[in-house]
Amino acid sequence: MPEPSDDDHEHGAHDRGAHGRVPTRGERWEDFKKSPFLPATVLVFILAAAAGLFAGSYTYTMANPTPHRIPTAVVGAANAEHGGAFLVGMEKALNASLEVHPYDSVAAAVEGVDQQKVFAILDVRQGDRVGLEVSGASGASVAQVLAETAPEVGAGLGVPVTVTDVKPLQKGDPRGLAIFYVSLAAVIIGFVGAIQLSVHARALNPLERIAYTVAYALLGAFVIAAVVDWWLGALDLPFAQSWAILALTMFTSGMVFTMFNTLFGRWAMLPTWGLMVLLGNPSSGGAVSWPLLPSVLGRIGQWLPPGASVNAQHTAVYFGGNQHVFPFLVLTAWALLSCAIFWIWRHRHPGGRATEPAHAGEAAA
């Protein structure tokens, strides 16, 4: 058996050194970056931060709602002694501003409630008492705050106060939260559906992906409306309109995720969750009416899909004859923007499939 040469000894020592030496810090970092441990570690910190932000955003907006500006109709002599004193007393007790809208009659003021211009009606036509008509349908939280505060202010002034609800909530929705939960379901399932398409139907081409998003939005919205109205009886929905609003919400939410998936790849859940859940849902006015939200959130929420969905659904259910076009424009604008970005940069989307090559026989022909 031949003895190993000097070259063999050199190569052996080199190999043993390459495999047996301790990796440098840079080499370890390169290995870590290429391993699944890097994204898993990043996710640990992201999820921890998301948990805190989620709890914080909802607690900040909902734990202690405080009125800031409440549009209020005033019928009668607004400058009457007891009427003016009552308004001042209410503002002091609420630590808020009652935005006064004068009306000539209660009927005209009720029309203002139906048009969602005012949240309450203050009737000071009677000289010895004050009538306060709240609107639970306009915002249960606002109506509750006003109904609890008004008698206390009246007692302090020696003026009797009669509180009635001119636009009560439906019996199956005594706290006015059903619409918020219905809209929340459409938002969450909307982008979760898009996530599932990206995982389980990754090979869908752009038009196919949009078509399937439309499909699950239509079917999912129908089921939500059917369960809430026909099965549970929690809300008496204007079914066709509510179905359309929920479907548009689900489609918009799904396409928002698809847009972010195109722009940010596997990290698309971060901006989607931030926009739709952390910011959009607490500021939607569904759980806490916008006069009780921090003023900046109240304004921002109207321009985001969750807020637009709540506004459109709320008006459809309780103020059907006075539907506004603005929330539909907001939802449509977000849907079109998302579709446009997805389509323009579709080559960056992680899904899709390559065009199949032509058949060999066809190519020869």
Tell me what you see in this structure.
Helix content is 61%, strand content 8%. The model is unreliable at 12-17 and 360-365 (pLDDT under 50). The chain has a five-stranded mixed sheet, sandwiched between helices. The chain is of the alpha/beta class. 37% of the residues are buried. The protein has helices at residues 6-20, 25-34, 37-62, 81-94, 106-114, 140-157, 178-200, 206-231, 239-264, 269-280, 295-301, 305-318, 326-344, 360-364; strands at 69-75, 97-103, 120-123, 130-134, 161-165. It starts with 5 loop residues before the first helix and ends with a helix. The protein is built from 14 helices and five strands. Helix 7 (178-200) crosses helix 9 (239-264). A hairpin with a 6-residue loop joins strand 3 (120-123) and strand 4.
How do the strands line up in the largest sheet?
Answer: 2-1-3-4-5
Estimated share of beta-strand residues = 5-15%
Q: Low-confidence segments, ≥5 residues, pLDDT <50? A: 12-17, 360-365
Biggest sheet: strands, sense, closure?
5 strands, mixed
Find the structural class using helix and strand composition: alpha/beta
Order of helices and strands: HHHEHEHEEHEHHHHHHHH
Q: Gap between N and C termini, in Å?
A: 63 Å
